[in-house]
Design goal:
The longest helix has 31 residues, at 229-259. Helix content is 77%, strand content 0%. The chain has 11 helices and no strands. The chain has one domain (10-259). Helix 1 (10-25) crosses helix 10. It is an all-alpha fold and 266 residues long.
Length: 266
Amino acid sequence: MHAHTLPSRQGLQWLSNSFRIYGKAQVRMPLVVLCYMAIGMVMLMFGAPGLLLFFLLDPMFSVGLTNLSHRVDQGVKVDPGVIFSGFLKKPGTLLALGTIYAGVMFVVFLLALLLFVLAFGDAPLREFAELLEQTGSARKDISPEMFASITRLFQITLFLHIPPSVVFWHASILIAWHDLPKGKALFFSLVGCLRNWRAFLVYVAAIFIVMVLIPNLVLGMLAKFAFGLRGLVAVSFVFMLLVINLWCVGLYVSYRDIFATIDETA
């Protein structure tokens, strides 16, 4: 296993290639990603146990989403079932990797809550907790201000997740496509990212513009024009769908450039 060292401009190329592959997919990739999001939403309906299960299975879904990107790039016809292709190879090792990932995400979420409270106070969190405790006719609708607070917390969590993701970024693919044990997969994922930290820095900056700056500007403008909560949620959902699509393609294109060969058999 050899990790290539790439120039910093490759980070922009990854984003460009992600959009290119996404364009080739037409409606196929968004439909599969919608299935993935629906599965995640169903799990989250079960609260903390569902969230834990989602993190445990995340490496398997990551392999499925990367298989999706690879097949779209190769012009192979895909169907929604590709999202489960990551369950077919090395499921035990991937589940062990998911256990480690779940522990990391627990720490990340605690840090995100701490930073959110330090920056914005605990009033939004208390208000949201009270809203969740309400039932039936007593439940109030989420206000645009509350929705903005939830979005900020989500964004803080997302960016705190970036440093540990360096270790996990290609690990699931290296397990499923190259039969590496989880320790070696984590090691080579870390080495590949560290050798290309300049390219990843450019890539993260580009994603930040697409994922945070542009959505916040759009949502801020819509809020000023009294667009309404449902409209804000709809626009946020579109941006989230785009981000998840770019994320799964980004896994594939960065792996392809850093590790060169693809042994996808799932």
